[in-house]
Amino acid sequence: MVGTWANVIDVSGNVIGSICPPTSNDALRLAHIFRNQFISSSVMIRKTAINPHLVFIETRNPYFSEDYDLWLRLLGKGTVANIPEKLTSHRRLKSSRSQDDRGSLTKSARQISAEWLVQNFKHFTSLETANSFVSSINGLDDLTINDRRSLINSRETYRKLLGELGINEQQTRFTELHSVIVCHKFHILIWSLLAKLPIRFQKFLFFLLSRFKSAKTIRYIWE
Fold first, then answer.
1. So what's the pLDDT on residue 38?
2. Cβ burial 58-83 (10 Å sphere, 16+ → b, else e)
């Protein structure tokens, strides 16, 4: 399976940003567990990878993130990649399904991620613990007050997850996979610190952090 990078455009077609997910197979296998790393309009898949059990699930609610779900289920079937060129455009509209407050596709994707972790990794014994862990990875980018979790054990859980995936951190230095790990650990660190604060301070910091995309800080640290 292969996708590409994309320009983000507004309703008038003006470029207002870009989406540049990881490109290598190793980085995508880890990053996509927690967040969609493929621009659906750019994805191409070998016909032989599709079978009656590997298709879009369209029987769940209208806000089910069926593309993220399918890419996640396909991840272990072969090699994946993203071409590091902006070969398509993603139009961002306030009226789109992904921006609809009645049933966010983002919430659906987080639920899919948690379900996948419970099904595939022995360290996750319930959806509640998996949801907490997914929040610790994505929280600074999808930040809302209602998503607070108890995240005391997230750092140790992440270490065990890397072990189950067969990832040796020492061997990933100066690779795209290493940058994904650094990003995840930074998110977990911030969330773990927030979880130890009194609720009134958490709410204030959540308000401040909601105006801040942690990915920008990660880029500065990594460069």
1. 96
2. eeeeebbbbbbbbbbebbeeeebbbe
